[in-house]
């Protein structure tokens, strides 16, 4: 098992050594720092030793990465099983040459355990979420993650730890697509393609706060019900032969905008109904990329984390009273099963990893 070392924070240790008067908040922090006096140096993480199928994911005990001056050490409570994680796991999108064991996961939420010497915005005990694609200090399927503080924000009010843990990357992507790239305006009609997935379920809600009419694509009763509950005004099944006719009837003057979270020949036909002067946005990773069209602005982008982006997202989450639908939650030790579910497809909303943390592993 892990060897242990003291990680009492510089701030709390200095205060108690000097006998300085403490605020109630500071007292709580001193107490929690004492309780953590023997913090672990290793952690459990779901990682791969080589690219492969879901069964390549195994639980490893690995060192907790070193904290740099601008980093935050987060004791994770939940992590996202992103649709893109499957492509990292099987090698199609991973950094090459990869360093194994490779801990998967691009985003999650938890409690700040320690901050780097240059970090002023966060303190031990803060509840935070974070997103870092190809995080240089390892992924989020673990008991801890070390991440640059610019990629970290406080968990927005109204979101639980599990909801925040599974939605950071998707929420940034959805909000930036809707607000920054499409810049939806009141009264417009937007088509959200792939609305029942991780990004789509959040994009519907961010779009609705602009007073737009949302037409969602979704397949099957369960997905149709979900997207309607989240605010879609109309729903069509992009896989059905009559989808284009239905969409044309719904928007005789054409769509003002479309957010494409899936692609393919039938979807191209739907995107053909975006009017001249309209906009199409899609995040990189949608394959094949939607094709360019005359008189329509087609923009690809990446969801990105920064202080400013996370502050903006925080406000958007509140405005939208964001709901994060979670189809299923898996314990860290069963991350491979979560990836098997990913491979089956038709995930409604999100899949989450629940992480207990050292000392709480049996809980
Ligand atoms: N670059 C970035 O920053 C970034 C960030 C996040 C996501 N992404 C990309 O954005 C895309 C969406 O991500 P996600 O996590 O939301 O994926 P997801 O949860 O798998 O959702 C995809 C959605 O697309 C639908 N869909 C897939 N193929 C379809 C088809 N042929 N016809 C109609 N609908 C179809 C699915 O519906 P069914 O369930 O009915 O199949 C589902 O609703 C992915 O390509 C991902 O890689 C990029």
From TrEMBL:
The keyword NADP applies. It comes from Labilithrix luteola. This is Bifunctional protein: zinc-containing alcohol dehydrogenase. GO terms for molecular function: oxidoreductase activity. It holds the Pfam family ADH_N. Residues 52-353 form the Enoyl reductase (ER) domain. InterPro entries: ADH-like_N, ER, GroES-like_sf, NAD(P)-bd_dom_sf, Zinc-ADH_QOR/CCCR. PANTHER family: QUINONE OXIDOREDUCTASE (PTHR44154). SUPFAM superfamilies: GroES-like, NAD(P)-binding Rossmann-fold domains. The keyword NADP applies. Keywords: NADP. Residues 1-26 are annotated as: Disordered. Signal peptide: none annotated.
């Amino acid at each position: 098992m892990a060897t242990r070392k003291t990680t009492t924070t510089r701030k709390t240790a200095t205060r108690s050594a000097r006998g300085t008067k403490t605020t109630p908040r500071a007292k709580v922090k001193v107490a929690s720092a004492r309780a953590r006096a023997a913090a672990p140096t290793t952690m459990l993480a779901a990682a791969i030793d080589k690219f492969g199928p879901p069964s390549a994911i195994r639980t490893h005990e690995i060192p907790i990465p070193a904290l740099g001056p601008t980093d935050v050490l987060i004791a994770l409570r939940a992590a996202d099983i992103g649709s893109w994680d499957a492509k990292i796991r099987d090698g199609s999108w991973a950094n090459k040459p990869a360093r194994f064991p490779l801990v998967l996961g691009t985003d999650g939420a938890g409690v700040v355990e320690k901050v780097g010497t240059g970090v002023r915005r966060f303190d031990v005990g803060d509840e935070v979420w974070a997103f870092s694609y190809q995080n240089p200090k390892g992924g989020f399927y673990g008991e801890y993650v070390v991440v640059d503080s610019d990629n970290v924000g406080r968990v927005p009010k109204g979101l639980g730890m599990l909801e925040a843990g599974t939605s950071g990357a998707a929420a940034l992507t959805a909000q930036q697509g809707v607000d920054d790239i499409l810049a939806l305006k009141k009264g417009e009609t937007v088509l959200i393609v792939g609305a029942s997935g991780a990004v789509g379920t959040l994009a519907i809600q961010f779009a609705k706060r602009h007073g737009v009419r949302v037409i969602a694509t979704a397949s099957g009763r369960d997905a149709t019900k979900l997207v309607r509950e989240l605010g879609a005004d109309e729903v069509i099944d992009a896989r059905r032969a009559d989808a284009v006719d239905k969409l044309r009837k719904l928007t005789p003057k054409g769509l003002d905008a479309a957010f494409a979270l899936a692609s393919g020949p039938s979807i191209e036909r739907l995107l053909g109904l975006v009017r001249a002067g309209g906009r199409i946005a899609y995040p990189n990773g949608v394959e094949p990329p939607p094709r360019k069209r005359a008189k329509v602005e087609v923009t690809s982008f990446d969801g990105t984390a920064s202080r400013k982006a996370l502050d903006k997202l925080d406000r958007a989450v509140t405005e939208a009273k964001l709901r994060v639908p979670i189809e299923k939650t898996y314990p860290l030790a069963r991350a491979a099963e979560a990836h098997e579910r990913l491979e089956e497809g038709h995930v409604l909303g999100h899949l989450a990893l629940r992480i207990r943390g050292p000392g709480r592993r049996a809980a």
